[in-house]
Amino acid sequence: MLRVENLSRRFGDLLAVAPANIHIRRHQTTVIMGGSGSGKTTLLRLLAGLEQASSGHIWLDGKHDLSCISQSGLYQLRQRMGMVFQYSALLNSLNVYENVAFPLHEHTQLDESVIRTMVMMKLEQVGMRGFEHLMPSELSGGMAKRVAFARALITDPELVFFDEPTSGLDPISAGVVSSLIHRLGQQTRLTSVVVTHDVEAGLRIADKVILLWQGHVIAEGTAEDIRHSDDPRVRQFIEGNPDGPIPFSRNETPFHEALMAGL
Amino acid sequence: MQGYRKIEIIVGIFVFVGIVAIAGLAIKLGQIGGLSSSGYELTAVFEDVGGIRVGGDVMMAGVSIGRVADVSLDDDSEAHLLLEINEGIKISTDAIATVRTKGIIGERYIRITQGADEESLNDGDEIEETESAINIEDLVSKYIFSPDNKE
Amino acid sequence: MRRLLTHIFGAIGRSTLSSLQRTGDATMLSLRALCCFFMPPWQGSHIVRQLYALGVGSLIIIAITGAFTGMVLALQGYYMLAKFGSESLLGSAIALSIIRELGPVLAAFMLIGRAGSSITAEIGIMRVTEQLDALQMMAVNPVGRIIMPRILATVIALPLLVAIFDVVGLAAGYVIGVDLLGVNAGAFIGEMVTKVAMEDLNIGWIKAAGFGLLIGAICTWYGYRAEATTEGVARATTQAVVLSCVSVLVLDYILTSFFL
To answer: Least CB-CB distance to C129: which of A49, A76, A87?
Structure first.
């Protein structure tokens, strides 16, 4: 569905995403994993067209290049996409119901009763029915995230981006959310791209895993491939070892040497 | 959507009040809408108007009865004034127009003193009798250089 | 010495270029907002909401400021004019200063303090919490939905607020001048009516609309381009308020010298 060619993004001297070639297949759940600052959120924002690429192309369906497309063309394509943001990004001025109904109010001429039914269905799916009159400021992080889920799915998109869907959720909600993503992939043939550093949840739902480290793709394959990878960096990441080729500290010189040299 | 209707109504009131304020100022102060046209015009020729400006007052017995609509210099190098007089004010044909000053350094205005004639001036007529501005410098020099004042 | 000089001139050049670049960016944002006004979807209800939040919300503070401005001008003007024995000019003195200068400028300042700061903070927070990105992902253009209604609301609201400021200020000046200081009521009104011409009122409206556009453009831009952190939004809000106030005064000078 999405084919990425040679895509990169620089912020000044910092290379956030090194030139990468990625293929995201239709009806699959692709999980992008990596530590903090590995460029995974930037990659997701590039894929969603929220960030301008420094080089490379993103092909949607092999015919639309998202890296150089007009604003209106992008808005047209986005009606087929959804996104769940890390901090939910619900619109503050609208209540839960209006937030979920927002894409329908914007882009369809449906009758309000139809919209109401659709919204209630989605809210039921994420376990938030009965909270539709609350404002976003009255919700906990986990509740807000579930509302964001309902909002991203209300238009039945073909492609959904999830930015850290399980972070900030208690284990039960996180489990519900990951099984929801998984189930949606199976039942509605949804294509989803998930960014997470939650290894267990990521590997459980993934059809394909992409592991990033300092902007570079260091591993790509099925969850099984990753689990049985020999690459010490991959092993360190999925096992959560403090020692290994990926340094915990970004400093070149060890602390005791820096201390001797007078910091 | 109930809340939105309320907002609409309040904004409507706000815009209405604002427009009424704009219109009120324009009509009352900007003299739009026929207020200035209700009246008639007289002309008067002065030797010296002492720098009177358009918009200056025209007064009779201390009451404002109109304003100076135009100041120009005619071919004989005399000041030619166009006076706008309010509706209903009658000025006799032998009235006298004088350039006066409000206070010592105040602004100039035209004082009109009513004459004895029964007939009154009509739109476009000229006030024949005029008296120029009193120049303080002239008065002072006249006083200093007058012969009786020499010792 | 040479290093100092290159340092100084480098700093001057850098800040000039960056401020030019930011001015250009802000202008582009406002122009894009203008384009959005003429393109579907029609954002009527959002313009009305912003008029409510920015215009109606600033009404009371504008009226209070207007009243006290008129009262101070009456007291101060009377004190000065009485020295020359021209108290009768009080009405025109108050009217001309309020209508030409103080009305537009003070109302603009109040709008900046009351509404401009909240525009920047609100949009900045939408940036921090990714609400602007969320709008984009839902195929809604944030420039048309968020920026345009706010700029338009300040442009529409400020002339209306200035007119209300003028009326309240003149009324308050009348009360102080005539009722308290004993200036003749006829002279007060008469002077006001003869001395204020339509041009003076027009200058007031033009200034008000210009200031409204300036405030809307500056405050929305600072919010839109705010650094996506808490301090970034705080800094953007302060800068937006300061820059709005300064540029209102600069534009006021330019317009006044242009029309005089």
So the answer is: A87
Band of residue B105 on the pLDDT scale cut at 50, 70, 90 = low
| Domain housing B122 | 39-141
Q: What are the residue ranges in chain C where pLDDT is below 50?
A: none
Q: Into how many domains does chain B fold?
A: 2
Per cent of chain B over pLDDT 70 is 82
Cα–Cα distance measured from residue B119 to residue B121, given in angstroms and rounded to the nearest whole number: 7
Q: Which residues pair with B67 in a beta bridge?
A: B57, B84
User: Is there a domain that residue C37 lies in?
Assistant: no
Q: Using N-to-C axis directions, what is the helix angle for C103-111 and C57-83, rounded to 10°? A: 150
Q: How far is CA A258 from the centre of its chain?
A: 38
- Number of domains making up chain C: 1
Question: C-side interface with B, Cβ within 8 Å?
Answer: 45, 48-49, 51-52, 55-56, 59, 84-86, 88-89, 95, 99, 156, 159-161, 163-164, 166-167, 186, 190, 192-198, 200-201, 205
Domains (ranges, CATH) in chain A? 1-80+159-168+187-263 (3.40.50.300), 87-156 (no CATH)
Under 8 Å CB-to-CB from A212, ≥6 apart: which residues?
A32, A33, A34, A38, A39, A40, A43, A218
Do B25 and B46 fall into the same domain? Answer: no
Distance between CA atoms of residues A128 and A104, nearest Å: 18
Q: At B35, is the pLDDT very low, low, confident or very high (cuts 50, 70, 90)?
A: very low
